[in-house]
Amino acid sequence: MRRQWSYLNNLTFHLNNMAKLSMIEREKKRERLNKKYLSKIKMIKDKLRDSKTSDEEATELRLRLQKIPLNALSVRKRNRCALTGRPRGVYRKFTLGRTKLREMAMAGLIPGLTKASW
């Protein structure tokens, strides 16, 4: 049995394909770390791109960049379904997994989305 958070922050239980809450919380932690270190990373990278920095300064800047936690990097972020937390098969435009997108589209809950027929 898996737990699921609804938009109203009520904890509900489902037997469907829910992601583990620990994985969802890990993604939230990565998002917080990314926001925390974003300006620092940007400042260091801008100084590294500057042609006026000496080799010694560049080495020092690279060491400072390496000390930043890996989970603070934006490449560590993972797109997840907003309803189930599923990490794969997520449509960016809707932030929904393919199964939930299909269910909602068939129920007519997504305006303008129709089933293809030819």
Descriptive account of the structure:
This protein has a two-stranded antiparallel ribbon with strand order 1-2. It has a domain at 20-77. The chain starts with a strand and ends in a 12-residue tail after the last helix. The mean pLDDT is 85. It contains three helices and four strands. It is 42% helix and 10% strand. By secondary structure, it is mainly α. The relative contact order is 0.13.
Descriptive key words:
42% helix, elongated, two-stranded antiparallel sheet, 4 strands, two-stranded antiparallel ribbon, 118 residues, mainly alpha
Low-confidence stretches: none
Give the helix tally. Answer: 3
Beginning-to-end CA distance, first to last residue: 40 Å
Query: How much of the polypeptide forms β-strand, as a percent range?
Result: 5-15%
Task: Please write the string of helix (H) and strand (E) elements.
Answer: EEHHEEH
Class per helix and strand makeup: mainly alpha
In short:
This protein has 118 residues and is mainly alpha-helical. Helices cover 42% and strands 10% of the residues. The chain has a two-stranded antiparallel sheet.
List the helices and strands and how they pair.
Blueprint: E1 2-5, E2 11-14, H1 21-49, H2 55-66, E3 90-91, E4 96-97, H3 98-106
Antiparallel strand pairs: 1-2, 3-4
